[in-house]
Amino acid sequence: MSPNLTRHLGLLQISAASVLWGTGGLVVTVIHDRSGLGAMTASAWRMALATVALVAFIAVTGRAGQAITMMRSRPVVPIVVGCGTALYQGLYFASVLSIGVAVATVVALGLSPILASIWHHIQARTAPSLREIAVLAAALVGLCLVTFGGAPHERGGGATNFTAGLLLAIAAGATYAATTILGHRLASRTDPVVIATCTTTAGAVALAPLFLVAALNGEPVVPSDPTSLGLLVYLGVFTLALSYGLLYAGLRTTSGAAATVVTLVEPISAAVLAAVLLGQQLTWMSVVGAILILGAVVGLPAGRDVPDGRPDPGV
């Protein structure tokens, strides 16, 4: 496969992961409405079920030895990435409860590509090109239009909650950028399914105490109906196990900074799903925003970070 085709495949793999992530919010909402399961408890189940699926997959495909070797020889980065993924979920959901999904999404997802790009250029000791600036600007404007261009959103919370929620969203964006960059470094030298297994297992262990917290607070720990159980399995297997396998596969040929731009496809997926399943109307602002984000993804420079840490001129 030619280098250009390989790079484009990487972008498509990350885009596919983002589409799957975009379905997660609706699934969590449906589970909560049907069974009362909280968002954080659903996140813990998502990590746990993804771990079961990934461990079973690597056992069947004979990759368990690679995972064990990886955790014995260099356990720090996989554990940090897995705990970072779990932390991002917690920070983001807490931000949503304080300032609403619209502002939380724009701040968290919008900040990630900016921070990743800044880090990239600090390492490379270069200045961003006009093309990079245009790509980031188009992606961020598109994100705002998709997020705010639909039905009116409430900010949520009072002034104190808004300040705290904004800080949580900023922390979520920084955490997401950092874990994506670290994930890229892992992906350059390890099987993506093995990486997903190790990082997800670490994240599942980090979120396991949430089951106890829910039980002590008298909240549901396990969904009470078969439909919710099925949706929970979908949440773990497809929106985490499969999607993170795709992400790490894509990160083999796509820089961490570029990947944070591509993941802005996630709110497009969520908006389209809401229109199809919930009857929410797609406004012209949402459509224009989606076009800008997709245009930014197509316009990404083709470069990538070289595995030895010497980044090339990609976003």
Automatic annotation (TrEMBL):
Main location: membrane
InterPro entries per record: AA-Vitamin_Transporters, EamA_dom, EmrE-like
Stretches assigned to the EamA domain: 9-147, 164-299
Localization, UniProt: Membrane
Keyword Membrane found: yes
An annotated GO cellular component: membrane
Coiled coil regions in record: none
Transmembrane segments: 12-32, 44-64, 76-93, 99-121, 133-151, 163-182, 194-216, 228-249, 256-278, 284-303
Stated name of the protein: EamA family transporter
Source organism: Mycolicibacterium mucogenicum DSM 44124
Record lineage: Bacteria, Bacillati, Actinomycetota, Actinomycetes, Mycobacteriales
